[in-house]
Design brief:
With 319 residues, the chain is an alpha/beta fold. Helix content is 45%, strand content 13%. It is built from 9 helices and 10 strands. InterPro entries: GSCFA, SGNH_hydro_sf.
Length: 319
């Protein structure tokens, strides 16, 4: 007997392997999946401009990266003793203006290079709600705790989201025509916007994204959709799969969603290597009651041998 519904997932025609180079962009759920890629030692770059929730801000950043348009002094501002940019997350903010500009421009040039080399890009959309700076009339990626009165809060229309996703794809494909796209919608509910408003926001993302995929997938190239939101809402329909805030997936949920992702989007040839990496990672976490014992020294020697063999086998893997 089946006691839950299972979401059907189509296998990727261009699965990820240890030769793949992955760029992950988007909401905090993108970070959850990137941590898994990092754990298993895949070649993955995550959110070089910090967490970005909305499609318009993602579009603006990729246009900048693809054209290598560097940040200038006019693109940053001073608030609460730190310099910020409305285009990026506050994690990149700095007390020194020049250091911030150097950090941002290094991110632009390095992301441009990585995007040209990337085989796969994973874009995780979080919300349709955006904040618009009323002075510049620009959508911001982060408000940086600037007073609320300086922004208008808006819900992006389906057409606006569709256009921004389409523009993002076109910008990236102009630079990296053979890249494989994987889109997903974050399973994190943005309840601070309101319960009804969160559902409305997600529905706009679904409608816009699937309209774009329908258009693109009628051509020769297929862009994949991974149903992380559907898995969380349907297969894991229980609050025991949430963190204490009852909004974010807990580690059990993340592990389960990763399992389904890896079964369908990672090459089967990579599974044996993933098992080797997993065994080493668990061994590295092992803490001995007697670190000086012969038994533990033999354990460490054997572990180092396993690491050396794997690092020699796959040059980019480092522990």
């Amino acid at each position: 007997m089946q006691f839950r519904t299972q979401i059907p997932i189509s296998k990727s025609n261009n699965p990820i392997d240890y030769n793949s180079k992955i760029l992950s962009i988007g909401s905090c759920f993108a970070e959850n999946m990137a941590e898994k890629f990092d754990y298993f030692k895949f070649q993955n770059e995550i959110n070089p401009f910090g967490i970005i929730f909305n499609s318009v801000s993602i579009e603006k950043l990729f246009k900048r990266v693809c054209k290598e348009e560097l940040f200038e002094e006019k693109d940053v501002f001073f608030h609460n003793e730190r310099w910020h940019s409305f285009e990026v997350h506050s994690d990149l903010s700095n007390s020194d203006r020049q250091e911030l500009l150097e950090t941002l421009n290094k991110a632009v040039t390095e992301t441009h290079k990585k995007l040209k080399e990337a085989t796969h890009i994973i874009i995780t959309l979080g919300t349709s709600w955006i904040y618009r700076n009323m002075e510049s009339d620009e959508v911001v990626a982060n408000c940086h705790k600037v007073p609320q009165k300086q922004f208008s809060k808006e819900l992006l229309s389906v057409d606006e989201i569709q256009k921004s996703i389409q523009n993002t794809i076109e910008s990236i494909e102009a630079l990296s025509p053979n890249i494989n796209f994987i889109f997903t919608i974050s399973p994190v509910r943005h309840i601070k916007d309101g319960f009804v408003e969160n559902q409305l926001s997600k529905s706009h993302l679904f409608t816009a994204l699937h309209q774009v995929l329908k258009t693109h997938n009628s051509k020769l190239k297929t862009h994949n959709y991974f149903p992380s939101y559907e898995i969380m809402m349907d297969e894991l329909r229980d609050y025991r799969f949430y963190n204490e805030d009852m909004l974010h997936p807990n580690q059990i949920a993340i592990d389960y969603i990763w399992k389904l992702f890896s079964e369908n989007y990672i090459s089967q040839d990579s599974f044996s290597l993933m098992l080797e990496v997993d065994e080493i990672q668990k061994s590295l976490l092992h803490r001995s009651f007697n670190p000086e014992s012969d038994q533990h020294q033999k354990f460490l020697a054997k572990l180092q041998q396993k690491i050396s063999i794997l690092e020699n086998k796959i040059s980019h893997i480092k522990f």
